[in-house]
Amino acid sequence: MSDDKNKDKKPAKKAAPAATLEANGDSIQLSEKAGATSNIALGVGIVGLGAALAAGGGLMGKQFQHSYLTAYMWALSISVGGIWWVTLQHLFGSRASVVMRRVGEIIGASVWVMVLLALPILAPIFMHSDVLYPWVSHEYMASNHVLESKAGYFGTGFFALRMVAYFVSWIVISKFWLKKSLAQDKTKGDVGRYKKLQANAAPAMIVFALTVTFCAMDFLMTLDPIWFSTIFGVYYFATCVLTFHSVLAITLMWLQKTGHLQKSVTIEHYHDVGKMMFAFTAFWTYIGFSQFMLLWYANIPEETHWFHDRMVGTWLNASLILTAIHFVIPFFGMMSRSMKRNKGPLRFWAFYVLAVCWFDMYWLIAPNLHKEGMLIGASDIAALVGMAGMVAFAIITGAKKVTLIATGEPRLARALAFENI
């Protein structure tokens, strides 16, 4: 988030207490009416995932597994992006984001539901079925000499160990930030406490970088065990940042529509969110093109075949469409200052980015099943709707338990008065 470091050198003002915020007519506690939305979200999630299960041929159906993985990686990017964002705010000591940070902490802490939702993906692996990942089959691993050097990495035991490492790391980091932030609320402006949090941000960011990189490799890149890319983790990270900021904007607007944070979160804060969405649209393009150019130019069969699969039949059209809707259109659409400072357009682009990021996940995963061409079916849409419902359920449920602003943050008063230059 943008910040004025020179101004930040001034002595920190004492945080505005919760009572003061509420006295000014700002609601910082989720109302029962808004909280009841979580039940609707849960219902949508269950029905959507159930429909995907039926349309995709059941748990062991190839169509269901690919549809589910597409939606899952899209949803996972939201909570993982939240963990990164909160860690980043502490790392750089940002004051502009303080009024939004609790919402970011809630989104990051929703990663717990992704642990449960990972079970349908992991079940076939531990049942020794190659319905999704071909490396589960011993015959497949023995069929190609290229895979011999990777045999040590593949295996259900080591795979399970890595999954535990990823999810435990994310849960610990997200719970740590939220717990310390809530404890800070009771101290009302303890400067030393937030400096200690800043000191923990650097090692947390290193852990985050490693876990997200290898998670992207395990869940996505190993769909084609022969192919590899050293930049793939960064490619997925770009999606995490985009989806998180989109959900952050949508969540803040929903909270304000239901009567919360109406004075605390201003157009200046939305402006910062919009800038991050715009910036990482360009970043995603840079990483995506770099990955394509370097692998295609090297012309190594083990690397180029992955892109070749996405350049034949209707997959070529899908690749061109992805380039247009993920870069060209949003780049020019989100460039203007007025877009970032107007809730209507910003809301549109937030939903747009979420839809495009799902299509990006589809483009990464579906060619492994539909090599003849793009085919978006009922199972794909149902899985997306169901996963969106589950994410919304986890976020709203988390919001019920805490105040929506970190009232003990010593920089809160300055965050409330923040203005973009």
Q: What percent of residues are in strands?
A: under 5%
H-E string:
HHHHHHHHHHHHHHHHHH
Q: In terms of per-residue confidence, which ranges show pLDDT below 50 for 5 or more consecutive residues?
A: 1-16
Distance between the termini: 13 Å
- What's the number of structural domains? 1
Global geometry = globular
- What is the mean predicted local confidence, pLDDT? 91
Total number of beta strands = 0
Topology at a glance:
Layout: H1 18-23, H2 32-35, H3 37-55, H4 62-92, H5 98-109, H6 111-117, H7 119-126, H8 138-142, H9 156-187, H10 191-219, H11 232-257, H12 267-298, H13 301-309, H14 314-333, H15 337-340, H16 343-365, H17 378-400, H18 412-416
Distinctive features:
single chain; 421 residues; mainly alpha; 18 helices; disordered N terminus
